[in-house]
Design brief:
By secondary structure, this protein is of the alpha+beta class. The chain has two domains: 60 residues, no CATH class; 63 residues, no CATH class. It contains four helices and five strands; from the N terminus they run αββααβαββ.
Length: 147
């Protein structure tokens, strides 16, 4: 297991699950205190093969040994949002293009695109993604592209 301070510095002292700041001075026993999450190992690999990430103790405990869920914010107006973690895993393996949500207006889609690219820059820093908004069927599709 890596040193907490090394993982924290690398992750900018932000929880990889909830994307909120983590106080490096907080007790590791406090709910909002720092902890190292072993992450999720790639399919077919041992649990120790997962990437270690910084998380709040409570976020890490709540996740347990199940696949993490990274929520879309409630203030974004998105319909049928794709689960972020499986989307990132697929795009990391295959690259390509994937529709990840629908929005009723161009403004909603633009706001969701900005949030998603910013969030993924911290959640999956090695994944080079761009987001595009495409009109379709009276709605606006939020499309991720990995290169």
């Amino acid at each position: 297991m890596s040193d907490l301070n090394e993982v924290g510095a690398r992750d900018g002292w932000r929880c990889w699950l909830c994307d909120e700041p983590v106080d490096p001075e907080a007790s590791v026993n406090a709910d909002r205190g720092p902890s190292v999450d072993a992450g999720v190992a790639p399919k077919g690999k041992k649990a120790s093969a997962g990437v270690e990430r910084l998380a709040h103790r409570a976020c890490n405990t709540r996740k347990g040994k199940v696949a993490p869920v990274v929520p879309w914010p409630a203030e974004l107006f998105v319909v049928d949002p794709a689960p972020i973690v499986p989307t990132v895993e697929r795009m990391s393996r295959k690259g390509g293009r994937e529709v990840v949500a629908r929005c009723p207006s161009r403004a909603d889609a633009d706001q969701a695109a900005l949030w998603l690219v910013d969030r993924l820059s911290r959640f999956a820093p090695d994944l080079d993604v761009t987001a595009q908004v495409e009109p379709g069927g009276g709605q606006f599709l939020l499309v991720l592209r990995a290169g």
